[in-house]
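Box 3.1 A note on notation
Throughout this textbook, protein chains are presented in two layers. The first layer is the amino acid sequence; the second is a token string describing backbone geometry. Keep the layers aligned when reading.
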Amino acid sequence: MEYQVPQFIEVEDKIIGPLTLKQFIYVAGAAGLCVIFFMYLNFILAVLLALPVVGFAAALAFYKVNGKPFIDVIEAGFNYYTRAKLFLWKRHEEAAGKINEAAAAAEMAARSAPRGTPKLTRGKLSELAWSLDVKSPQ
């Protein structure tokens, strides 16, 4: 039995004219807020408040940043400023001293090895790792 697989699942359906449902809600909400401004406020004050609302609604409805809707960018910015930040690298002077001590100890251990002991270089180590990874057909 054959089934049809949806091809364009990332494309939203145009429901109201050339607008998707989300776009229509953004535009209708901004229009409703602007109507309220013009009904209850002075004309100049209403225009001053309506311009940013219309611009923000237009950005929400139509503007995309790197192929993502503007609302996702706003959400990411909000989350960045409100959530705790995770710092993966903070170097402290005590840690730097411990690292230097560990490096010095490793160098001393390398120097104190007997004379006939072969040195393990990066090339030899990678060859050894390769030979262990590749299994022989035995």
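Residues 18 and 24 are 9 Å apart (CA to CA). The first helix runs from residue 21 to 40.
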